[in-house]
């Protein structure tokens, strides 16, 4: 792989950009791999990358039914933060956030990580208590967050209205090194690095069946033929239950559409990310100038990847209370993704009842931020057939044993 650099851009500029090589290869599948990852979203690609980088397992295929990054990874609103309440969550999300800090250098591609800061607004007394508690928990966990009062919120977000008609802003939980990154670039960067290690990324290839023998995985059937493997990582977000069904077990996951929308582009108006959980909406401004707005999940299970008018209305109406200037903007595009929700709103990184099959799912509305940490932990689980410290608490057995990692408060709003 030839390195991207300022020098390379200058060189290619001089020769009309004729010398760039393809970022990743598109091979036909081999008959057998040491490990197969199903799903070329951020989590699947990061799993493959750390399998190679941290564990030396490079005879790996990543199988994707569509195009890489075309699932939730390319549909999210790119918020990155690690201000979670429970210790296992803070550990994995902070690991991920810290890997984002150096991702562009590590993967030699600009993923546009922008640690512009994230505020979670407190608009009820209940939220004030909740976020002050999270700030204390974060201090103990080594996650840099702080509780800030309304005046500091106003300094950070001049366009905000503090004395809204229903919910005045009472303060917020501020994570100065939270922010955003370019979602497609994260997928592309991992894909390029995997391909450079000799891994096969096979797009337009759906897994249609999973063969097992004596309680262990033997092969997958795909639209491009049968492929053998002894290790199979299912990393397919909203399709997790479907793939688990092919292997003969069930997952405690519900799939549901989550929607987002963007406004027309405007001049720079807000240089932090703001989340307003009570009125249920959140917003950041993209480099193009669009206000990127996220709403909530649909109230019923479904597999649609579409937006709907009632969500646009609900989300924008809620945000206009806190950001009155929004009422003057036109909304340009809306879309949806299928998110995978667990009961405790925490992910699953786990062995399964079938030997050699591992599942990484349940990131729900907030798994973009965790991509590098999740890939790191999942690769360790697959390589060693046992979870490491980051994944240990997220096993499937927690649902049987009642050891929930209850982040439902933190996941009260989609992000
Ligand atoms: C509107 C929206 C906004 C969001 N905002 C944020 C945010 O601001 N911050 C945040 O942290 N998170 C956010 N999220 C959540 C985040 O996008 C997801 O948690 C994350 O992208 C999941 O990544 P993934 O790699 O697990 O899944 P995906 O990116 O969905 O990848 C799974 C892949 O598996 C493939 N697949 C499925 N079935 C098969 C099969 N049978 N064979 C082969 N391939 C298959 C799919 O095609 C897909 O490409 C948001 C999600 C949505 C929808």
List its traits.
24% strand, D-Amino Acid Oxidase, Chain A, domain 2, six-stranded mixed β-sheet, FAD/NAD(P)-binding domain, eight-stranded mixed β-sheet, alpha/beta, 415 residues, binds flavin-adenine dinucleotide, single chain
Number of strands: 20
Indicate the overall shape.
globular
Distance between the termini: 34 Å
Radius of gyration: 21 Å
Estimated helix fraction: 25-40%
Which homologous superfamily in CATH is the superfamily of the largest domain? FAD/NAD(P)-binding domain
- Note the beta-strand portion: 15-25%
* Average pLDDT over all residues: 95
CATH topology of the largest domain: FAD/NAD(P)-binding domain
Largest sheet: 8 strands, mixed
Number of helices: 11
EC number: 1.5.3.24
Domain Rhodanese: 36-79
Protein name: Sarcosine oxidase subunit beta
Cofactor: FAD; FMN
Quick structural gist:
The chain has 415 residues and is α/β, with parallel strands linked by helices. The chain contains eleven helices and 20 strands. Residues 36-79 form the Rhodanese domain.
Task: Describe the model.
The protein is an alpha/beta fold and 415 residues long. The protein has 2 domains: 6-79 and 183-252 and 344-412, FAD/NAD(P)-binding domain, CATH 3.50.50; 118-176 and 254-341, D-Amino Acid Oxidase, Chain A, domain 2 (2-Layer Sandwich). It is 29% helix and 24% strand. The chain contains 11 helices and 20 strands. The chain has an 8-stranded mixed β-sheet with strand order 6-7-5-15-16-17-14-18, with helices on both faces. Strand 11 and strand 12 form a beta hairpin. Helix 2 (42-55) runs parallel beside helix 7 (183-196) and helix 3 crosses helix 10. The longest helix has 17 residues, at 125-141. The protein is globular, with a radius of gyration of 21 Å. The mean pLDDT is 95. Bound molecules: flavin-adenine dinucleotide (FAD). Residues 38-44, 63-66, 70-73, 75-79, 206-207, 235-237, 239, 243, 258-260, 294, 337, 339, 363, 365-369, 415 line the site of flavin-adenine dinucleotide. Flavin-adenine dinucleotide is lined by residues 38-44, 63-66, 70-73, 75-79, 206-207, 235-237, 239, 243, 258-260, 294, 337, 339, 363, 365-369, 415.
